[in-house]
Design a protein that fits this description.
mainly alpha
Amino acid sequence: MKAPIPSVVLAARDDEDLQSLGYTSQLKRKLGQSATFAAGFALISVLVGTSVTYGIGWSSAGPAAVWLVLVVFLGQLMTTLVFAELAAKYPISGSIYQWAKRIGGEFLGWMTGWVYTVAWLIVAPTIALGLQATLTAFSPRFQLFGSDVVAATDPLYAANAALLSLFLFAVTTAVNVMKVSVLRLLSYIGVFAELAGVALLLVVLMSHVRRGPSVLAHGIDVTAGGTQAVGGLLIAAFLPLYVLFGMDEATSLAEETRDPRRNGPRAMLKALGVAGGLCFLIVALVPMAIPDLTDPHIGDGLSYVVNLLAGPVVGKVFSLVVLICIVCAATAAHALVARMIFSQARDGRYWAATKLSRVSHSGHTPIWATLLVAVLWFTALLINIAVPRVFSAIIGAGTFLIYLGYLTVSALALRSRLRGDWSTQPGHFSLGRWGLYINAAAVLFGVLACVNMMWPRAAFYGSEWWQRYAGMYVPVVVIGVGLVHYLAAGKRNRDVIPGSPTASSQPIGPAQWAATPPAS
């Protein structure tokens, strides 16, 4: 039996591998496959996502929404398989940005990274809104403004969410500024809480099953018009679309992962697989367990279902578990966005790039990028206080931007395959001869998902024109601002930015990237 290779030797090998890709290692490699899986799974947070978005699926398609979970999962699996190949080829922090840059060129790479980063800056503050809903449901005392819990449309709701988010962002910032081992610990806590919460939910649902799986095949009439329309099913797809993303967190931490060429792809696929399976089970079991399929409050979400079936005590326990998952998901999202900003700043295409690419000496984490994320998130919540209806419309557009980032990378990978300049390394994750077909399926899914999410639906975005068309004009604004930033920031002297490509290891062209040898 071979003796295990010491971790110090593995880290040195991985750092040499990173050097061959043009970067000097600055971050500490403390994460194994289980830790990177935990980070990705915590960010997907199937319990939080399903709890928040279940009402969308139920009110739009009833029990039939479960089949949309399966469709979206298969589409995201195609995307993740493409990402797994890229993660094995380019194990670098800021994965989406780095992949797009390596196969699409500097400009397309930067714009993809910019859009993806802005998308998370828009979407992640909704976790704070989830914190508001969960805490006030747990106890009205957490409604710090006013004398009672207020509706989501009330300005006091947004103000209270902003105040609570101060504590949330303080935790996520502290964890991400400290050593990555602290992030690893919180990721493990998040996985344990997720699995415990899902187990509790499944036990409650399965112990109250009163009808068979046939209810999923037939569905129910949930629309005033009679039969379920295609439009209702398309809106119901938002349930899994809003849950099954973020798996790339496992590869965005590549420079803090041991043997990232192997562990990153496996962790990403495992995170999506477990999350997809659990989401399907939850959405399938709810209509089999609830007493009355015509109960108008089922669309309020899973907290109502748990309280209905198991009582308020179990309901509070469930809310407490969801609260822990919210904190862990927000921390994982913070880590993802900070690494994206760090990775782009290190290439000199940000204003204040030198500062944003700086790594703390004690924790070996991107400290200024981490602090910037917290400031921008809190600013977004202040906007929500001023104009909550505008903010809610922008959030929907933000999720579309995440899928646009996924689609761009998948499309660039497909272009590379069709040109014949796609290659993989022996011993690394590879789709083999199925790569072209899987990649094409990923692009097709990405196009359909993006069209569905940007479609101007009054039922989802709102009745005003600026709400309905948010999925169209917000991306244009984001891309326009990104273009101005790209041109105005100019090309920095990357030699002065620690960890950036040096004259002796300048980032190289596609032919050299494809030929980068694996870690041995």
